[in-house]
Amino acid sequence: MMVKSKQWEDRGNPWDSITASQPAARGVFRLFADNDDHRRLMMLRALLTAALLIAAASAFSDTHPIVAWSSHKTNVLDGAPRTGDILDQLLASDEICSFDAVVLAEQPGLHASDLRKLAPSSQFATFLNQAPASVQVPFARRSVHALADSLATRCGARTLGVVLGMSDPVFDPSSKHAAVDAHCQTLSSELATVAAAAPRHLVIYGGSPSSESIITRRQLSVSSIDETVIESPTIPAPVLQQAPAAAFASPTGGIFARYQLLTPGLITALLIAFFVLLPALLFSISALSAIQSPLRVEAPKGYSAEGKKNQ
After folding, report:
1. Do strands 201-208 and 101-108 pair parallel, antiparallel, or not at all (unpaired)?
2. Does residue 115 share a domain with residue 40?
3. Is the same domain home to 97 and 161?
4. Domain that holds residue 148
5. Are strands 133-140 and 101-108 parallel, antiparallel or unpaired?
6. Smallest Cα–Cα separation from 113: which of 34, 169, 171, 39?
7. What is the distance between the alpha carbons of residues 13 and 136, in angstroms, rounded to a whole number?
8. What's the domain count of the chain?
9. What is the DSSP letter of 130?
């Protein structure tokens, strides 16, 4: 049986504040019952209960525990609110860049109950108890991994990625707390190395959705889509009829039966050739043949070849 960590007991259960506010709410209901009938009161109480359940489901879905501590007393943690947006508040602090190193540790599938069940004698619990400044938020909206790039950009720091020995294992419900304890011991040994290299450091440790939960969500979303498709009216698929084999048989007969030779374009070209081009060609040939050549030499009139010879 696991023992709750003293650090978490000193901080108190986050549900204590909700439980403490319930008597005041019951008093409001009693005051309202004096001024209205019992039936309307029951209806409003049912509606309010449903609204509270919906708000609680939306508030605690996709949330993770955050534990942060520093090696020195600092206003970064002392003035940080114990609300779901604690990481945004830490990033907006002016002293966040004054540390020698900021360690961002993320463990998939971590819950607030896992940290409460850590043994007080563990090294991780000792880090929390001996830290000069620390803050614990059981339900944070933003993951630690999303803070790394923003923090490095603001402080002009270099980001170093370190993968510990176990990376996102699939937890068995009976051995989950032992696995979480092993994670914390591995993280504690790494933090001891960081503390020796950077005496002034800040550690932010939180959870993230495990791969198993992400796969389950995707399967649920896919199954809901499949159910929607099944419930939607089906559209009949087109029916494809196979053509008979006789349609693909080769036609019998001569070349005019196999091929279409006398097309309208071919007939038009033949008519133009025979009735326009051919007559123009014949007319041109006859015109050229009628032209006489001026190269033939004739004797002038009154010229006698014999008289010229006698002279």
Report:
1. parallel
2. no
3. yes
4. 62-223
5. unpaired
6. 171
7. 11
8. 2
9. H
Distance CA 134, CA 102 (A): 14
Task: Judge if 129 and 204 occupy the same domain.
Answer: yes
- What are the tokens at 46? 């049912």
- Per-position pLDDT tens, the chain of length 311: 333 334 434 444 433 433 333 333 333 333 333 445 555 555 555 555 444 444 444 445 567 788 888 888 888 887 777 777 777 888 888 888 888 888 888 877 777 777 777 777 777 788 778 888 888 887 777 777 777 888 888 888 777 766 655 444 444 555 555 656 666 777 777 777 877 888 888 888 887 766 544 444 444 444 443 443 334 343 343 343 444 444 445 556 666 666 677 788 888 988 898 898 888 999 999 888 888 655 555 555 665 656 655 65
* Torsion angle of the four alpha carbons 6, 137, 202, 110, in this order, in degrees rounded to the nearest 10: 80
CA-based end-to-end distance of the chain: 162
Look up residue 171 and give its two tokens. Answer: 């937890």
Distance of CA 239 to the CA centre of its chain: 39
Furthest-apart CA pair in the chain: how many Å? 171
Query: Cα 294 vs. chain centroid, distance in angstroms?
Result: 95
